[in-house]
Amino acid sequence: MNGDQNTPPGSTRxxxxxxxxxxxxLATFASFLYPVxxxxxxxxxxxxxxxxxxxxxxxxxxxxxxxxxxxGSSPGLxxxxxxxxxxxxxxxxxxxxxxxxxxxxxxQVWCPCHNGIYGIDGRNISGPPPKPLxxxxxxxxxxxxxxxxxxxx
Amino acid sequence: MAFLRNxxxxxxxxxxxxxxxxxxxxxxxxxxxTTNSCLDCHSAMPDPLGVTQEKFSQDIxxxxxxxxxxxxxGDANSYDPTVSMGAKAGFKGKIDRRQVPQLCASxxxxxxxxxxxxxxxxxxxxxxxxxxxxxxRQAAGDSKVAVxxxxxxxxxxxxxSDPRSTVNPVNIATTCSRCHSDAAYMKPYGIPTDQFAKYxxxxxxxxxxxxxxxxxxxxxxxxGNHGAVPPGVDxxxxxxxxxxxxxxxxxxxxSHKAAFDALGLPGCVVCHSNHGIHMPxxxxxxxxxxxxxxxxxxxxxxxxxxxxxxxxxLMQLDGAITQADQTLSVAEASGxxxxxxxxxxxxxxxxxxKARVTIHTYQQALVDQxxxxxxxxxxxxxxxxxxxxxxxxxxxxxxxxxxLAIAIMLAGLWLFIRKIER
Amino acid sequence: MIAAILRWLDERLHLDDLIAPFRHKTVPVHRxxxxxxxxxxxxxxxxxxxxxxxxxxxxxxxxxxxxxxxVQYIMTKVRYGWLIRSIHSWSANLMILTAFAxxxxxxxxxxxxxxxxxxWISGMLLLFLVMGFGFSGYLLPWNTLAFFxxxxxxxxxxxxxxxxxxxxxxxxxxxxxxxxxxxRFFGFHVAVLPGLVVVLISIHLxxxxxxxxxxxxxxxxEWAENPSVKREMKFFPNFMLRExxxxxxxxxxxxxxxxxxxxxxxVKADPFGSAPAGIKPEWYFLFMYQTLKIIPSKVWFVEGExxxxxxxxxxxxxWLLLPFFDSEPPSRPKRWITGLxxxxxxxxxxxxxxxxxxx
Lengths: 153, 422, 359
Description:
The structure holds 3 protein chains of 3 kinds.
Chain A: H1 11-40, E1 52-57, E2 65-71, E3 74-80, E4 86-90, E5 101-103, E6 108-111, E7 116-118, E8 124-126, E9 135-141, E10 144-148
Chain B: H1 2-30, H2 37-42, H3 53-57, H4 60-63, H5 68-72, H6 81-84, H7 100-108, H8 111-115, H9 125-131, H10 133-139, H11 148-152, H12 169-180, H13 183-186, H14 195-200, H15 203-210, H16 219-223, H17 236-241, H18 245-252, H19 255-263, H20 268-272, H21 302-333, H22 339-358, H23 364-421
Helix pairs in contact in B: 9-10, 21-22, 21-23, 22-23
Chain C: H1 2-13, H2 15-24, E1 26-28, H3 37-57, H4 67-76, H5 81-108, H6 117-139, H7 144-157, H8 164-172, H9 179-211, H10 217-225, E2 232-234, H11 235-260, H12 286-294, E3 298-299, E4 302-303, H13 304-320, H14 335-357
Antiparallel strand pairs in C: 1-2, 3-4
Helix pairs in contact in C: 3-5, 3-11, 4-5, 5-6, 5-11, 6-7, 6-9, 7-8, 12-13, 12-14
């Protein structure tokens, strides 16, 4: 059989090269472009939450109670005092690192591990803790309670 | 002639000025230095009569303006021994041990007097001392027991806040052990002398001396200082409860309290010892040499069965946390970020600690609640670690696809080059 | 379709005149031709840095408070953020490596001699700027290693006599390394240095195009003897296609490094903390750092560190002016320069290894 007279010799070779080149360019550019395109789309979480975090909504807390929230990579304690003001402190006890809690009966912050006691302002009052708890700034944004690091003086 | 007259006047003036200068110089040099004939002689004497100026200057009493005569009487201005150490000056000589508490209390129990130095200082030390074992025996005539100077030192007494003071928290155990670890000295009293040795193996000693935690308990924390007395057998848990609140509360409501009280057993000490308190381990729930439960309970009884369940629950949680940690480490070593899971791991560890505290209720169901909560968290973290590994593998597959694309491209280029260069 | 677009452009821009020099450009072919690739690879890696750098700019916060966290955010929350950042870090190191390789290859191939002195000078200045890129970029994640490496590095600048202290304060934005240093380095890294480098690259490339590719003297001599042995290839498309292959291989290497060995975050810098034990600069500064370490603290009446820094500065200056020490073609190149080049290569490699292994 003579085969197809219209196909010049070596055209399959040329076709192969074209496929390789064209396919290669397409494939490589696609594999470069795809991650870049996904990269420029912002992720759902806009922030890592180490400088500012929404600790809760107004109404979540009852007066004279506290709740733990996540601030960056460590726990924080949000307190709503009986006179209606918010206070936010680091919840990591300065003694041996346990998580502290708010005691409504004492109006103080208490660490259950070795009975350490702090005031609402974070000052270490009694027991083993050697240093006060770091205090954070609290602002209300609409009905969100926003906790931020204290502004450097 | 006038010239000569002037010279004389000049000389006389110079002599007066010189004399005045010497007097002024003498006054200046001597200013602020009160005569202390006691130290002048006794600083050159060998022990036991020797007290150097250097040593005495460290003493808080010296720093507040008191001196030898404040306690020993006598006259510090005279160098004549019959005057300085004479009866007329009220010289007391070496204070007899039995008189020491009374002597110190003559100031230290006088609130009006002490107020002028430090209004915050307590003034009930002598009263406390009388309630202590040391005080009671001393009143009965025992001169071997501790009096003020045995703990506080003498002539170089430092305030307790000074780290060099013999009664600073870091030094208290050593001070007490000077007598209480001396087997020969303590023979007449028939009490053990291994407390300090045991304390040195304890977790409290570790906390204070190695980790620098000054709030850790030492001898006086549990026994008191001036009113030193071993806590009553039924009072031990009150002492421990000052720091270990939850364990004490749980124990109070538990079955073991009534049982131990009825048997006259000293609460916490039964399982945890008093001086050699080691870091508790899950092995204490076991049947090995460290096991405490089976000292009283019978194998196979209801409590033994509960013990087995408690121990296995805790070990299960411990194992789950360790396994999750390992998976996360492998993921991390492959370059994946697992910081959120690591944070959650600390919560799982908190649950394990909580579960171990709940042992003191001696109710297996309650311990199990904490264990299950911890297992949930550890399982989530383990899953996070596995997911990280899956993503890691996906990245390698993605890389492989890229390599394939690049290989196709390279092949195409090479063939093209060959074609155009034939 | 591409042909139609080109024709449309050609009707307006007369592309022929512009492209003509490139059509005629040839590349000599001999056993050392492969070294010609390194310049192009360095340029390609610079392009990669610009692209990945711009992408990183979309999410990076410059400021001591949240620089570290923003890099953490890129690595963990942004889709393929880990890839972009790791490529940026790896490509930076690769680029410095290829820049050095390019410089040494030019040195050994004697391509710096007349008429290419300006090409060498612009290239050396580019090398200094590239190391500046590395130094400034290293601080941007604001982790402990970077903070202390910057502290040590800028302190050494301060040792230069007379102008050292003002230079150090200028670099640091104050007497100490603080958040101000970070902001300043950021400015250098994304604005000042790119601007300077783009200008210098343009000059460098223009000179390369204008002067053509040089041929190593020995091969030149062989060809003079036997003209039939001389071989050349056209730059476009032959050499360029080969360069494309080299660039694709580079991309593959970068991708593999980024996927298998992602760049780590470290620990956030604490300016009041103490330096970690055995702190060392990045590998491309190790040879200088190790040199300074072995100089005794006092040499004669001069302080060792001052001597070391001034010495490094002088060495850099001499290196910059190297073409002016060598003979002009067609004379044979001076042997001692070859010897010096070998010594320099051994020194840089040896000191880097020593610095890496030393505690």
